[in-house]
């Protein structure tokens, strides 16, 4: 039996992620690239000879011409670990207008063409070949409620450095799965938190994001054959299935007791944590890794100020700027001279001028 996760691109030009977990808890395939429907069908067929549960992050049943699917609205109304989820709602008309195809349906057809025994269903009982719809945000809430939300998706208004810090947090959370039931034994071979995340370009980062989402879908399938999950909707008009760990496991199993940050902190924070009766696990960083973390912290502090508009957030921002200057060997006096020179050459912002357009004479 194999457990296959597919983070499906809704268009044929973009990369999709595919991950396969074996019955022994080993990741045996994890890749992101441009796949055709036929290529996906071939990969699934290769690993499904002895049975497979396939979890796909994409709408697989879209019968509604307009509006939202019932399962999309229902899952947003559902409380999971006391929280609400947000999902992308879709209709058939919307999918065809913007993407030209309901690609999830086409992938299901491609899989069934090779192996007709596959059932598209939320009922996992007594079936060896099943395709189900799931999605990474719901999986993250279901498995890691104490850490949710983990905002590792690239967003237009969020600094990329902040998003990369969140990805580091997500990758660290995956390490917990080595102690879950069922466990995954070789996560570090595929997802290893390192300064490399901070150095990634957006293209490299998106590739990692697709592989990670595919892994989450595969692990959801792996978990759901051993535990009862949550199924929203039905096989006729669309369903979404996610794993949800037991509330007692959240309270007693350590999920609530360990919070993973992997971010730069002020010098006195470890002592403040210890004084509160908790234990802080810290490490000293240096060189390019330190600069990467400072840059990520800068993005984090900018976002916190934009969200709150509080002056104290500006103080945090300036402290990070000072740390970056120290790293680069630039004194406060030198920095102030650079600032004054720019004011002399280009002015400041005292006159509150808004540039609306520039016209050629």
From TrEMBL:
Pfam families reported in the protein's UniProt record: DUF429
Listed CDD domains: NTP-PPase_COG4997 (cd11532)
Protein name: Phosphoribosyl-ATP pyrophosphohydrolase
Lineage: superkingdom: Bacteria
InterPro entries (alphabetical): DUF429 (IPR007362), MSMEG_1276-like_NTP-PPase_dom (IPR038735)
């Amino acid at each position: 039996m194999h457990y296959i996760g597919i983070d499906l691109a809704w268009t044929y030009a973009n990369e999709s992620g595919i991950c396969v977990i074996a019955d022994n808890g080993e990741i045996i395939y994890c890749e992101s690239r441009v796949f055709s429907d036929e290529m996906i069908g071939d990969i699934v067929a290769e690993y499904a000879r002895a049975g497979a549960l396939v979890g796909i992050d994409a709408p697989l049943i879209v019968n509604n011409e307009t509006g939202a699917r019932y399962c999309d609205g229902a899952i947003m109304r559902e409380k999971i670990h006391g929280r609400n989820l947000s999902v992308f709602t879709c209709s058939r008309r919307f999918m065809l207008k913007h993407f030209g195809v309901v690609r999830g349906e086409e992938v299901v057809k491609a899989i069934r063409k090779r192996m007709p025994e596959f059932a598209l269903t939320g009922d996992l009982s007594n079936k060896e070949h099943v395709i189900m719809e799931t999605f990474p945000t719901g999986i993250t809430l279901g498995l890691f409620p104490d850490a949710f939300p983990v905002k590792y998706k690239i967003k237009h208004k969020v600094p990329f450095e902040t998003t990369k810090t969140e990805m580091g947090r997500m990758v660290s959370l995956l390490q917990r799965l080595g102690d879950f039931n069922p466990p995954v034994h070789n996560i570090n071979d595929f997802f290893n938190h390192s300064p490399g995340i901070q150095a990634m370009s957006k293209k490299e980062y998106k590739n990692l994001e697709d592989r990670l989402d595919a892994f989450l879908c595969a692990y959801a399938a792996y978990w759901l054959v051993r535990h009862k999950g949550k199924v929203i909707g039905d096989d006729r008009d669309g369903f979404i299935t996610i794993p949800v760990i037991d509330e007692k496991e959240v309270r007693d199993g350590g999920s609530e007791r360990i919070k993973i940050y992997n971010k730069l902190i002020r010098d006195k924070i470890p002592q403040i944590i210890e004084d509160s009766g908790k234990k802080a696990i810290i490490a000293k960083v240096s060189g390019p890794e330190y600069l990467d973390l400072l840059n990520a912290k800068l993005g984090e502090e900018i976002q916190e100020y934009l969200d709150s508009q509080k002056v104290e957030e500006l103080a945090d921002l300036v402290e990070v700027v000072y740390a970056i200057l120290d790293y680069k060997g630039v004194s406060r006096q030198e920095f102030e001279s650079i600032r004054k020179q720019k004011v002399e050459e280009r002015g400041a912002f005292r006159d509150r001028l808004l540039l609306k357009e520039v016209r050629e004479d």
